[in-house]
Design goal:
Layout lengths: L1 H16 L5 H13 L5 H11 L7 H8 L3 H14 L3 E3 L11 E3 L7
Antiparallel strand pairs: 1-2
Length: 110
């Protein structure tokens, strides 16, 4: 019984750091970006909105899922998407070290 309890403890701590949705679900959403070196900006924005639909994700998590450099994601998409109201930032300070983004449930494409 000793090994079971320690593995259960490890499961609980690893779940705390894992995205709310399973990684497989997020990877499936991100597949179009992972399979192509270039995507139209509108298509990339749509993928970012889908990834951030049900949880906050950091720029590093988004970049990893999309197989893109986080700086490129931040510079090309996140600032603009927050300004347009597509995404909401977890913290008011854009340089917050734990900054993360979530799709704005009230945003509708015009």
């Amino acid at each position: 019984g000793h090994k079971v309890s320690s593995s259960q403890r490890n499961d609980a701590s690893s779940q705390r750091n894992a995205p709310v949705l399973g990684d497989a679900v997020l990877l499936a959403i991100a597949a179009p970006a992972r399979e192509k070196a270039r995507l139209a900006p509108a298509a990339m924005e749509e993928l970012i909105r889908k990834l951030c639909q049900s949880q906050y994700l950091t720029v590093a998590q988004i970049g990893s899922l999309l197989n893109r450099h986080p700086d490129g994601i931040r510079n090309r998409f996140l600032g603009k998407m927050v300004r347009e109201g597509q995404l909401v930032a977890r913290y008011p300070d854009p340089t917050h070290p734990d900054q993360a983004y979530r799709t704005n449930p009230g945003w509708r494409e015009s």
